[in-house]
Amino acid sequence: MKHSVSKLAKHRVSLFAVVGVINTLVDIVLLNILRIATHTTTDQSNKLIVLNLISASTVALLSFYLNRRFVFKAQDTKNHMIVPFLLITLSGIFILQSLVIKFTLHRFDPIAQFFMDLGQHLPIIKNFSFNFYEANIAKVCATAASMVWNYTWYQKVIFKKN
Predict the structure, then answer these.
(1) Distance between CA atoms of 85 and 71, rounded to whole angstroms?
(2) Contact, 49 vs 31, CB < 8 A?
(3) Which of 58, 67, 89, 121 has the fewest CB neighbours in a 10 Å radius?
(4) Do the beta carbons of residue 51 and residue 34 sit within 8 Å?
(5) CA 104 to chain centre
């Protein structure tokens, strides 16, 4: 019994990671569309945080559906669970992600420079700016932090087994 629970837990974490990657890709694409459309640079950290709040909040609804359907397989989870789901998810976005972006922005500039230098050899991303790498490294760090937050709370509150 213990072995099957452990196997199920590993499988669930793996599915959660896959859903997280999908959500992250959609979130990053949306954030970059917003960033480019509004001409936001990493020197405008508060504006970048607001754009992140918009993109990440939009993706939260996709996350609810994918996690309910594929990760936690909670067919009996009622639509009223979307309110606590959104409270958990949005607190992760509004508080945790905002703090991580504020803290990590400019702290990983050597890594951003590495990716920019590497990108010069790849035609598809050759014209990406330093600003692009800097903003997206901060976003990935923020997303990783909120994934741990979300998984912990989803399992304990939203999709818990009775």
Answers:
(1) 14
(2) no
(3) 121
(4) yes
(5) 15
Q: Which residue has the tokens 């050899």?
A: 121
Residue with tokens 């996690």: 67
Report the predicted TM-score, pTM, of the whole model to 2 decimal places: 0.77
Q: What is the count of structural domains for the chain?
A: 1
Tell me the torsion sign for CA atoms 89, 90, 93, 96: negative
Phi-psi region of 39 (alpha: psi -120 to 50; beta: other; left: phi over 0): left
Q: Which residue has the tokens 């990783």?
A: 144
* pLDDT in 10s for each residue of the chain, 162 residues: 555 668 877 888 888 888 888 988 999 999 999 999 999 998 999 999 999 999 988 888 888 888 878 887 766 656 677 788 888 988 999 999 999 999 999 999 999 999 999 988 888 888 888 999 999 999 999 999 998 998 899 888 877 765
Token pair listed for 140: 């990935």
Residue ranges making up the domain that contains 43: 2-158
